[in-house]
Design brief:
The chain is α+β, with helices and mostly antiparallel strands and 103 residues long. The chain has one domain: 2-Layer Sandwich (Ribosomal Protein L30, Chain: A). 40% of the residues lie in helices and 20% in strands. It has a three-stranded antiparallel β-sheet with strand order 2-1-3. The protein is rod-shaped. It starts with 22 loop residues before the first strand and ends with a strand.
């Protein structure tokens, strides 16, 4: 009676697999209290949009009730959302932002 030697397979695939981060939409939600000029100011100062683009996005927010302001990796979208919220509260505005996965 002989004993069978176990089969051993060595996998040498050491190539790292780098995945792209999941992207999230940062959305401004319209309200009746936040001044449109303030929304434009946040788009210029935080997102670095020019005046014309900021005015168009603000009009979309006002007309449609909300608009996607940026699509970013989660951590960046979250940080920008916090910056907007802090700026809004400091100015006395209830501006709301939300994040949604960009599917």
């Amino acid at each position: 009676m002989s004993q069978a030697e176990p089969q051993v397979t060595i996998i040498t695939d050491l190539e790292p697999k780098i995945l792209e981060p999941h992207m999230f939409k940062l959305i401004y939600v319209n309200d009746d209290k936040t001044a449109m000029e303030f929304v434009i100011e946040t788009l210029v100062s935080i997102f670095k949009y020019n005046q014309s683009t900021s005015e168009k996005i603000t009009a979309d927010i006002h007309t449609n009730g909300s608009a996607v302001v940026a699509v970013l990796p989660y951590e960046m979208a979250e940080q920008k959302g916090v910056e907007v919220t802090v700026m809004a509260r400091a100015a006395g505005f209830p501006l709301q932002v939300k994040l949604e996965p960009d599917l």
